[in-house]
Specification:
With 398 residues, this protein is α/β, with parallel strands linked by helices. The protein has 18 helices and 7 strands. Strand 1, helix 13 and strand 2 form a beta-alpha-beta unit.
């Protein structure tokens, strides 16, 4: 048996431990003369979140096999969800049928229905809690594929081949990939978690996958004598100055590009999170300082370097949306950001998430077209013409 097959078998054994107690509970609910199909259906009804986990594992292994086959590597046979459920249920089904033959205590129909209803209610609460935790983890992530993702992935492995001791730029790439939940970033982080010999970088990828809501297991540390390249740690700290140094010193920062810069007040966080999700759903990448540079641009560490970083980010954005609220009118940063962006000759539009009295608005905000965002469309209103937001961003002459 090869290493890959042993790892797969070990993973199956660990996963089965989480299913043993639920399967035993389902066994206790079976009436005399039940069928295998009835057992499977009640399991899926009472533990839908576990059934989702089974299907998710199968999908993950299928993708992994496709990737390995495309690269000419060895693959392994994995069980389909229904086959896996049948395999792990055989012993429980046999045991309960043996108990029925011995006329051991069996629940009456009313007790059985009450138990099933209780399990369904518990499952609903479990699923709600799981979704709430997942949403909280993804609150500051973007569900979109950035333009520069292919360059970052290629650059990571080029840097590793060139100098294994230079971990700072590779660490920055992992941090950047962790900000976007898409197939390419998830696959890249999974590869780092599985293959990276430097433990600090591997652990960073592991934590990033957890934050993206992926099921992942941290690989064990290598035994024996370790090379310096395996133990050296990044020297980058979470401060505006360190971020600015990275912008000046690493080519990877120069290749970043964003579709939209969201100029806003930080007091409107919930509104910004909602708008970010809407823009991401249209494959639009956005820049928000406390999302994209969340750790390094902390409000507690604000200084002149913060302004320098914002200038760099403004230069890397194709367009700007000003989220105009009453909080925004009191902000010291938004007029400066819009003025700098206007001086760059780049397009600006204004989004009003709530009605604001015209008396409160400075007249210069009327220089910029408004944007209308609904559940079905995003349009820029310019000279009595509705322009699709994506076309407005990509159009050179705005």
């Amino acid at each position: 048996m090869g290493i890959l097959k042993r790892k797969y078998n070990k993973d199956c054994q660990l996963f089965y431990k989480t299913l043993r107690k639920p399967l035993k509970m389902i066994s206790s609910l079976m009436p005399v003369g039940f069928t295998n199909k009835m057992f499977y259906e009640i399991f899926k009804q009472c533990y839908p979140y576990l059934w989702d986990d089974i299907r998710e594992r199968s999908y993950k292994y299928r993708k992994d096999n496709i990737r390995r086959r495309a690269k000419g590597k060895k693959t392994f046979n994995f069980t389909e969800p229904n086959t896996y459920l049948d395999m792990i249920s055989k012993a429980h089904i046999s045991n309960v049928r043996a108990r029925h033959k011995r006329n051991e205590t069996i629940l009456c129909a009313e007790e059985r229905e009450n138990q099933i209803e209780r399990l369904k209610n518990e499952a609903a609460k479990r699923i709600e809690k799981r979704e709430r935790n997942r949403s909280e983890k993804l609150r500051y992530k973007q569900k979109v594929t950035p333009e520069y993702v292919n360059y970052f992935i290629t650059e990571y492995f080029r840097l590793r081949r060139k100098n294994t001791l230079d971990v700072n730029p590779r660490y920055l790439i992992i941090l950047e990939a962790a900000k976007f939940k898409c197939d390419k970033t998830v696959e890249f982080l999974q590869k780092i978690n599985a293959c990276e010999k430097n433990y600090v970088l591997q652990y960073a990828a592991f934590k990033a996958l957890q934050e993206l809501g992926e099921q992942v297991r941290l690989r064990k540390k290598r035994k024996g004598k370790k090379k310096l390249s395996m133990t050296i740690e990044p020297t980058i700290q979470n401060t505006p100055k360190d971020l600015l140094d990275a912008i000046y010193n690493y080519q990877i920062e120069a290749n970043k590009v964003f579709d939209v810069f969201l100029s806003h007040s930080s007091y409107d966080e919930n509104e910004l999170i909602k708008l970010k999700a809407q823009l991401n759903s249209e494959s639009i990448t956005v820049y928000v300082d406390w999302v994209n540079d969340r750790n390094m641009l902390s409000r507690d560490l604000m200084d002149v370097n913060t302004a320098k970083v914002i200038i760099d980010r403004l230069q890397k954005c194709k367009s700007m949306i000003l989220v105009l609220t009453e909080n925004c009118l009191a902000s010291k940063w938004t007029p400066w950001e819009v003025g700098y962006f206007h001086a760059l000759g780049k397009p600006v539009c204004v989004y009003y998430p709530q009605e604001i009295s015209e008396d409160l608005l400075p007249p210069y905000w009327n220089l910029y077209p408004r944007i209308s965002i609904t559940t079905s469309s995003m349009c820029v209103l310019k000279e009595d013409t509705n322009i699709d937001l994506k076309k407005w961003i990509s159009k050179k002459d705005k």
